[in-house]
Structure formats: structure tokens, C-alpha cells
Specification:
Length: about 425
């Protein structure tokens, strides 16, 4: 009973035990002990005042509710966002580990470098952590070596989101997968692209049953895609581009009913085919460019009414482009270039949000009439090069209000505009 009361006091009545300041605007509470720790932390941060405007507002005599990057709530929890600052390639101070009330910590692209300190593992209330960096040659990088990933996460049982984009973890598949599955059982968002991870993906990863977003692109897994990824029933995003994947992609993953974004691009040895898509599927982005996916695009792709982006460039697809694509009214970006598609181009006049169409380097035939393009007021780029299209070019094509670039070379067009065939590409910028 005593233990229960202690836990309840810790969870709900924490603010009453320390000096507090109340924010008049929203009723949230600044705990003076946390304010003091933040001010101590500020004194250890090597920052450029001009580029770190958030810290300038951390004034002990000012309004704590207006401290830049700091959010307080009525339970005494603290959210700290110091993203996009300039900390001059310094190491992350160990003082962050004293902020025991932190539930959110965002240090992404903040100019830190070197080892992430073990003291972060003391922040047992953390729900979200983000140490992501944008990698550019010569810019500082972060690493997880000592402590490694397992030690960093060992006490963070409440963690729901883990963002480590570009952090050098350098771990093998079994090591990093088991570190996650044993430490953060309730993880929902896993974002570790370009972390120098190797494969294969270990089956222990499937213990993270709440995963909804998986970003592991730009790691060298050199392995097949495991079928157990289809067991994540809440999966909305899966990005595995540029991972050296090979073998055959499991069709079951396409059938995950919640999946909205799938990116497998630039896995040049990864094979697969598109399945029959169910009615009212959730998929909004499908990116398979530069893989060995082949076969026909099924007519059922028209069932994916939420599709906004289709990129199948540089694959081995063949057969006709299904007319059902004309029903994809939300489509914004379509790239089917460098395949073996044949037959005629379906009309896209209902897809009024389209900004780019690239059907170049295929075996498409037949004329292109005004009905194909009527209403495409947002179309910026149209690329139909290197096909066998024929007939006259409709003048409507050149009056589309947003069109900036057309590429039509190496076709069999006739009529007044056929001279443009002699050009490598035709650039058309409307005067109005």
C-alpha cells in the first residue's frame, strides 16, 4: 500500500512538492527545480547566441512560460526542443541527464558531435527522443559506441518514438534488433536511417508489436526482406530504400491494411511483383524505383484511391498501363519511366493534382489526344521521350497554365509540331 501511494504521489502530485510558477496563459506549471537545472544546462552549452535564439529567452527573472523550446504541463512534465541550433560541434552535456521530468527531447540538427552520453539513459520518463542529424561531408556527427544502443535505451521503458537519423551506431542485425526489443517494448516510431546498421533484420524485432512507422533506409542490410514485417498490424510507413536488399519481396506486406507509405527504391537486386490490391486500400505513396520488380501493374491499382505518388522508374514492368489509373484522382506525382510498358497512355484528366508525369523510355504507342490532359492545371513537367507515340500533338497541351517543361523527343509525332522531334527536349515556359 505504501508503495502504491508513493507511486501515485510521484505521478500526480509531483508539482506540490516543489516551488512552482503558474503560466497565466494556459494553466501549465513551471517547476522551479527544473528551471534551475535548465539554467545550469544552459551555462554548459557552447552556443552561438545569434544562431541559438531559444536559449536567449531562458531568463531566471523572466516568464518561464516563454522560454524558447521549453514546454511545461500541469503535471510538471517538461518537453525540450533545441532542434536546429548551433552548438559548435560540442559534445552533448551530461547535464541533460538531470532533467528527470523530461518526456520529450529533441536535439536534432543542433550541431552536437561525438558520443551521446550515458546520462541520457537516466531520463526514464522519456516518450520521444530525437538526435537526428543531416549528414553533409565535413559537418559534425554523433555516435553510439560507449554507451552503445542497448545501454542508451536500457531504462527508457516509456519510449514511444526513437529518431536517430544519421547517428553512427555501427551494429549488426541481431545486436541492434535485440537492443530495441528488450528495452523499448512499446515503441511506435523507429527512425534509424543512415546509421551504419547491418543485417539481416532479426526476428526479435517483431516483439515490438506497436510499431507503426519504420525508417531504416540507407543502411547496408544485404539480406532479404523478412515476412514478419507483415505482422505489424498498425504499420503505416515502411522505408527500406538503399539497403542492399535482395531476394523476393513478400507480397503480404502490400496487404497490411494500414500501410500508407512504402519505399523500397534503390535496392537493385530486390525482386517482386505487385499483388491484387483490395478495395479502399490505405496506400498513398508507392516507391519501387531502381529495383527488379517486374510483371504487370494490376488493374486493381485503381482501388488505391488515396495514392498521391507512384514511382516505378527503372524496374522491369511490362504490359499496358492500366486504364484504372485514370481513377486515381489524388495523384500528384507519376513516374513509370525506364520500363517496358506498351500500349496507349490512359487519360489522366481526372487527376487534377498531377504536377509531374514521366512515361519516358518505354514502348508506348498510339496518339495522345486533348482528352488525356484536359484539366491538368497543376502539371509542371511532362516527359514522354523515347516511345513510339504517333499522331499530331494537341495544342491544348501547350496551353496548360502551370506547364514548364515538355520532353517529346524520339517519338513518331506528325503535323505542325513534329519538328520538335529533332530536339533532345523541348522546354516550354508559358508567358502568362
Amino acid at each position: 500500500m505504501a508503495l502504491f501511494l508513493a507511486l501515485m504521489l510521484n505521478r500526480f502530485w509531483y508539482p506540490c512538492c516543489f516551488g512552482v510558477r503558474e503560466c497565466l496563459s494556459d494553466g501549465s506549471t513551471c517547476l522551479e527545480d527544473q528551471m534551475s537545472l535548465l539554467l545550469q544546462l544552459k551555462s554548459t552549452l557552447k552556443h552561438n547566441v545569434a544562431a541559438s535564439s531559444k536559449l536567449v529567452s531562458w531568463n531566471p527573472s523572466g516568464d518561464c512560460c516563454s522560454w524558447g523550446g521549453v514546454t511545461w504541463d500541469s503535471s510538471g512534465h517538461v518537453r525540450l526542443n533545441l532542434a536546429n541550433n548551433s552548438f559548435n560541434a560540442s559534445q552533448i552535456p551530461s547535464g541533460f541527464g538531470k532533467l528527470g521530468n523530461l518526456i520529450y527531447l529533441n536535439l536534432s540538427s543542433a550541431g552536437f558531435s561525438g558520443q551521446i552520453p550515458i546520462e541520457i539513459s537516466r531520463l526514464t520518463r522519456l516518450v520521444t527522443i530525437d538526435f537526428s542529424i543531416l549528414y553533409f561531408l565535413g559537418l559534425p556527427t554523433l555516435k553510439l559506441e560507449n554507451p552503445n544502443l542497448r545501454k542508451l535505451l536500457q531504462n527508457l521503458r516509456e519510449l514511444r518514438e526513437l529518431h536517430l537519423i544519421g547517428v553512427n551506431i555501427s551494429a549488426e542485425g541481431k545486436e541492434w534488433c535485440q537492443a530495441l526489443s528488450s528495452s523499448v517494448p512499446n515503441l511506435q516510431v523507429l527512425s534509424m536511417p543512415n546509421c551504419y546498421l547491418s543485417g539481416p533484420l532479426d526476428s526479435s524485432l517483431q516483439k515490438l508489436r506497436s510499431l507503426s512507422s519504420i525508417r531504416l533506409d540507407k543502411n547496408n542490410f544485404s539480406a532479404p526482406v523478412p515476412e514478419f514485417l507483415a505482422n505489424f498490424l498498425n504499420l503505416t510507413l515502411l522505408r527500406l530504400s538503399s539497403c542492399g536488399l535482395h531476394g523476393t519481396f513478400p507480397e503480404k506486406i502490400f496487404q497490411v491494411p494500414t500501410l500508407q507509405i512504402l519505399d523500397l527504391s534503390n535496392n537493385k537486386l530486390l525482386q517482386g511483383s505487385l499483388p491484387k490490391f483490395p478495395q479502399n486500400g490505405s496506400l498513398g505513396t508507392l516507391v519501387l524505383s531502381d529495383t527488379k520488380f517486374s510483371g504487370k501493374v494490376p488493374y486493381s491499382i485503381g482501388n488505391l484511391k488515396r495514392l498521391t505518388r507512384i514511382e516505378l522508374a527503372g524496374c522491369d514492368f511490362s504490359g499496358p498501363i492500366p486504364n484504372s489509373m485514370a481513377d486515381l484522382t489524388q495523384l500528384v506525382y507519376l513516374d513509370l519511366s525506364n520500363n517496358k510498358f506498351s500500349g496507349s497512355i490512359p487519360p489522366f484528366s481526372l487527376s487534377k493534382n498531377l504536377t509531374r508525369i514521366n512515361l519516358s523510355h518505354n514502348y508506348l504507342t498510339g496518339p495522345i489526344s486533348s482528352s488525356h490532359w484536359n484539366g491538368l492545371v497543376n502539371l509542371v513537367t511532362l516527359d514522354l521521350r523515347d516511345n513510339s507515340l504517333n499522331g499530331s500533338l494537341p495544342m491544348l497541351l501547350f496551353s496548360l497554365p502551370s506547364l514548364q517543361k515538355i520532353r517529346l523527343s524520339n517519338n513518331q509525332f506528325s503535323g505542325p509540331l513534329s519538328k520538335f522531334q529533332l530536339c533532345l527536349s523541348l522546354y516550354w515556359r508559358p508567358l502568362i
